[in-house]
Design a protein that fits this description.
- It is a single chain.
- By secondary structure, this protein is an alpha/beta fold.
- It folds into two domains: 140 residues, Rossmann fold, CATH 3.40.50; 67 residues, Putative phosphatase, domain 2 (DNA polymerase, domain 1).
- 42% of the residues lie in helices and 11% in strands.
- The chain is built from nine helices and six strands.
- A six-stranded parallel sheet has the order 3-2-1-4-5-6, with helices on both faces.
- Helix 1 packs across helix 4.
- The longest helix has 19 residues.
- The radius of gyration is 17 Å and the shape is globular.
Length: 219
């Protein structure tokens, strides 16, 4: 059996922290007189905090000082951390532990590749930390998705070639990053949004052991 590297994004793939990002950004945007929709929020998924705030400001053509920009980013993070401090294992998305355990049973390598700077803290809260051989998060990378840096770094830590890695992603930027890295991209979410992925599922409940076994044995 070949050893493959399975790399998971965090937000919207393992846990739904995306809703907390949305609430925190919305509260922040409202505080400076900007409103945005769930649809616009899709553009903030898998994107760094700096880029997210730049996007929000651009939607209303608002200009702010460098100091205010930094203060707003810190405020958003504080708000977000308040939400995640209350997280527990009930926040894990359906069938994620089942998939992780199956891959571990099959002696496959598992890594996390996330833009989140709070990835380790979240994995600890939901009691999944020890299932990952490697964790690459926003503290380790200098380039945000769609740049493939996060996934290439994860593959390197697993000591597995990029072409032998499979990425689970819920964002367009993440799918593009996986494709650029030469990995198999599996989109978790809507087909209309993630159409650039090799395979797309609504969630992990739709992913069978046969499918995973085929990926493992794929030459």
């Amino acid at each position: 059996m070949t050893k493959k590297g399975f790399i998971f994004d965090l937000d919207g793939v393992i846990v739904d922290t995306a809703k907390y990002h949305f609430l925190a950004w919305k509260k922040l945007a409202n505080s400076i007189g900007i409103d945005f929709t769930h649809l616009q929020n899709e553009q903030l998924k898998g994107v760094s905090r700096v880029k997210s705030l730049e996007k929000i400001l651009s939607w209303s053509n608002k200009a702010i000082s460098e100091d205010q920009f930094r203060a707003l980013m810190a405020k958003k993070n504080e708000e977000y951390l308040g939400y995640i401090s209350k997280m527990d294992a009930s926040e894990i998305l359906p069938d994620v532990p089942k998939i992780l355990d199956f891959l571990i049973d099959q002696k496959q390598s598992i890594a996390l590749g996330s833009a989140s700077k709070n990835a380790r803290e979240i994995l600890k809260k939901v009691k999944l930390l020890e299932k990952f051989e490697a964790i690459v998060d926003g503290n380790d990378v200098s380039k945000a998705k769609p740049d493939p840096e996060v996934f290439l770094m994860a593959a390197k830590q697993l000591k597995i070639k990029p072409e032998d890695c499979i990425v689970f992603e819920d964002s367009v930027a993440g799918v593009q990053a996986a494709n650029t890295a030469g990995m198999i991209a599996i989109g978790i979410g809507e087909k209309s949004v993630l159409h650039e992925a090799h395979f797309i599922y609504n969630d992990f409940t739709e992913i069978s052991r046969e499918f995973l076994t085929n990926l493992i044995n794929r030459k």
